[in-house]
Amino acid sequence: MAYLGGVLGGTIGGYCSQIFGRRFSIIVLCVIGGALLYPYTLVSGPGIYASAFFEQFCVQGVFGIIPIHLVELSPPAFNTFIVGTSYNLGILISSPSIIIEVKIGDRYPLEPTGNDYGLAICLFAAGIFAYAIIVTILGPEQRGRRVTDHDSDDNDREEGHEHHPNDRALWVIRPKGRY
Fold it and tell me: Global pTM?
């Protein structure tokens, strides 16, 4: 159920970010995801399915929008470098998180069942949502900015190139007369 929420969240979140803006969509999904942390991590029973669905909807909605937001903010020559580097640096920074989660779980034990890892996950996720909201609020919005090196089609035509009418990508250029 959670996986389905993640797939739908990434798809619907990305679509809505085209309409409402990247920053607004990220902030709204972070706030909703933060509000769902308690039922997602600290409640048991049949209601966990709905909270897992909607929590993953929000998480994947946010982290589906962030890469295109980074692409739009970065210079065209460094689009993939910035997104790839930030992704890998995020993995590097988060690598000790499992150790920290275990230590938090050990610090707040549940008497009959052992350690409270739900609380540790809740605290970490709340921190991530808060961080994403703060960084997004402080950053600019450049939704719809052209993300290629070619700023104008006129430059291509002057060099003897034209775009094929069926080309969907902005960066595909073919020489004149060769279709």
Answer: 0.72
